[in-house]
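Researcher: Please predict.
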Amino acid sequence: MGITGKTHGVRMRRGTALSVAGLLAAPALVLGTGTAAQAASCTAGTGPYQKQVEKYLKRTADGRQSTADCNAIRSFQVAKGITPAVGYAGPVTWRTMKTITAQKAAGKNPNAAKKCPTNKGRIACVDLTRQLSWIQDGSKLKFGPVAVRTGRNGAETRTGSTKIYWRNIDHWSTLYDVRMPYAQFFDGGQAFHSVTKSMYNNPGSAGCVNMRPSDAKSYWSLLKKGDDVFVYGRKPGT
């Protein structure tokens, strides 16, 4: 169990303060999580990204908050794990919408720009900018792309070329006291692993590449120790 205690702690930033700048876009809002956030009153405030958010939600893009606008925005926030879910068209909500748009645009050709190497055989690619990951053999897509949740501001997922060096299907992080199912470590304490959170839940992970359970399970079956991993780009908001 010695490696368990150190694997998720190596080269990780300890005591990182969670940045809430941008989460609180209106001074009257109270930061909350989960049920408490969802139970908060719908805000009447017009957000800085009101018109853009209205357009994304296919509402009348007049740039003025209404009760119907707020309810639609709030429903989106609840679905994507954005807190506080009070219907305010702030920077986190708009950034999430832009990320989802970029993910949809990637379609089945996520490496169209050839930013992930195609000369290494099997490789897991992670695009921090679009919050996407996929597996390819050379230039042939094998799985994905899938949405991922990477490191928050101050605990960013490190970029560069690495390899999977250790795998544990039912890993327990002694650093964070949480389960990390289907963990595949590729850079210090950073790993692919399953979480039950939304992939858009802010502010992000402590550096790992979080995945939906079904996607993490597929990565487990498709990758092995020694396979290449390439991380590039920059997560929005970091």
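Model: Residues 34-103 form one domain.
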